[in-house]
Amino acid sequence: MMRRLGSVQQKIPCVFLTEVREGQSAKRDRQQFQVVATERVNPVALEANIACALATEKLDGTCCYVALYKGQPYLWARLDRKPNKQAEKRFKKHQHSHRSSKGFTWNVEEDFKTVPEAWIPAHRVKHHNGRPVPDELGHIPGWVPVEGDNKQYCWHSAVVDYEVGAALVLRPNADEGDVLEIAAVPLADLVEQTLELIGTSVNGNPYGLGSKKRPVHCLVSHGSVKVTTLPPLDFQQLRSWFHESPEGRVEGIVWHCGDGTLLKVHRHHLGLRWPDGEPCFGNRSVVVRVDWTAEEYTGGKDLFASLSALNGHRFSRLQDIQFDP
């Protein structure tokens, strides 16, 4: 049986040591510096024996978590607790003059925006005097349960059915590893896992799923999409792989080490654009395995019902999934 992969609860360190350089960040608006990889491998990676780690594709969506809420398995959306305007100004000023967030002092009670009552901090967030401590970005990573009446999380809601206790999961097919499948998976089987929500209305939809008229969203368990063509851990070889290999058209790589350590590299770390051409994930073939009767789902436009009507159907590319008009 395969070992349980690390869940993504906080910022994952880069597999290379990084440095800060002047210039507009390609990832974050209003950030006037870039974090780029150097050619030196992060000692954390060597200590965790990264040579034996499982390399997986980093997918471009939004992070989710499955955990109990009100006594049943629920999907939780990522919600970082962020500083208010005054505190953010002080923090940015400190960052600019020190080129770092080190040495900045937060007043967690007064400096942060309020969050919903059900909000919980992510695992491994440091605490001081019983209160969660912000990370180097000035955020406190956390989660909020996805409830049906919250419009902000309507795309999260589309992939779960709490009455039936299931979620729509996109995963490699057990018999054909290069083929993906969309399946309705019991939420109870996903408890304590983190997953990526991808689809039509998430992060510009780099994988081309669905359309505005008929949106398609699904969850992908972190660590489930393996990368087998990766070169040795060398800066230049990895950069060439991302830049030139068809399999390298991915947002990044996450390594799952045997001791639970997670490490990553993002195209931005290597000075490369994302997306750049068609991502290889959107070009993988997919089979629909949502085999439930329509009566189980209320509402004809429901994504579960729509996919049930396509049960057993195979599409040559993920981006080709279409429903009859």
TrEMBL record:
Cofactor: Mn(2+); Mg(2+)
Gene Ontology terms, MF aspect: ATP binding; RNA ligase (ATP) activity
InterPro entries, A to Z: RLIG1
Enzyme Commission number(s) of this protein: 6.5.1.3
Any one Pfam family match given in the protein's UniProt record, by short name: RLIG1
Record's keyword annotation contains ATP-binding: yes
Keywords: ATP-binding, Ligase, Nucleotide-binding, RNA repair
A Gene Ontology BP annotation from the UniProt entry: RNA repair
Keyword Transport tagged: no
Catalytic activity: ATP + (ribonucleotide)n-3'-hydroxyl + 5'-phospho-(ribonucleotide)m = (ribonucleotide)n+m + AMP + diphosphate
Enzyme class, first EC level, given as a word: ligase
Function: Functions as an RNA ligase, in vitro. The ligation reaction entails three nucleotidyl transfer steps. In the first step, the RNA ligase reacts with ATP in the absence of nucleic acid to form a covalent ligase-AMP intermediate and release pyrophosphate. In step 2, the ligase-AMP binds to the nucleic acid and transfers the adenylate to the 5'-PO4 terminus to form an adenylylated intermediate. In step 3, the RNA ligase directs the attack of the 3'-OH on the 5'-phosphoanhydride linkage, resulting in a repaired 3'-5' phosphodiester and release of AMP.
Protein name: RNA ligase 1
Source organism: Scophthalmus maximus (Turbot)
